[in-house]
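From the shared-data thread, chain only:
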Amino acid sequence: MVTPAPRLSPARVTLVGGLATVVGQLPVFLTGAMAVQITDDLLFGAAALGVAVAMFRVAGAVTSHYLGGLVDRVGAVASLRLAALVSLLASVGIAATATSWLALVAWLMFGATSNVLAQPAANRLLVRTIPPARQGMAFGVKQSAPPVASMLAGLSVPVIALTVGWRWAYLLGALLALLVIVGAGRRPPPPERVTGFRSVRPKLRDRGTVLLLAVALGLSTTASTPVAAFFVDASVRGGSSPELAGSLLGLASAAAVATRLVGGVVADRLRGGHLLLCAAMLMVGSTGLLLLASGVPAAMGFGVVVALMGTWGFNGVFVYSLMQAYPDAPGAATGATMPGGLIGGILGPVVFGVLAERVSYAAAWSYTFVAAIIAVGAFVVAAARLREQVLPGR
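Structure, as tokens:
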């Protein structure tokens, strides 16, 4: 049994945890949104941009196991404050010292540790504070962090990058990080008392289904990651202005946030079929990827909204369904599926960047469409397996 932390209301936990998750991912989304200005200034192309985004994911994958354990040792609130401090330093570092591609990548990799600290810390506080009947909505809010970060990054193009310069946009991340440090409170909660389950290592009932879910998550991440990282550059090359492209990315990200919130409400009310809902949302998102492949500015503007609503919108429902399917081993289930998302986050931008630079953006967007369609099939099969083997009778 876990003793709840005092002074941390559900609303405060959701706000601080969600904002910390935004702060942890904002540097990489700013890099994608301001790709036109950054690549022109630092003299590198689409393939190098893809590698830079991928190295953020690599750093997270390498450090996530250790830093997840660190959260357990120092506590959730202290971890959130540390995550915000790391992001603050990374944002200021990029703004002040990133004068080459290598320096940019180094700061992004350092900033990635903020993300892998904030995610488990926020989840830990949510589980401790939010009643089970409302956790679908809570995870929907928390999982809205990536599209919120992308929205802020997109809006920073016309508001900051094209007015006072791209470096100043990273100071927005530093300011938000400072808000997390203050909002998390000065004193951490007392040490948690955990009994009854730490002595026994939780086992997953159907590792085949979990592996399939990891594959589905990886493929969907392969499809979604390039949208935020490359849309602005692709749209500008297709004839749009940087101001319009950045604003459209912000609008699309806001639509993805709304989709995750609505998905969380729906998840709390569904008695089953959550993975089929994920598949349906991803299928809708895949049509947006086809519109992006057209290269027509008007179609791309509509396509980016549909693509992010679908390929990002399902994530909160996915996390909720995973927790519902494996309530006795939530950590093991999360740890088993996380590598899929990390690998997808690496392969997505790297392969996309190479295809965009050496073939065409149309070929690159088609690659994301194929990944999304295969992910839809994987979710459908996983839903059937889960219903038969893990959740009989549901």
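The chain has 15 helices and no strands.
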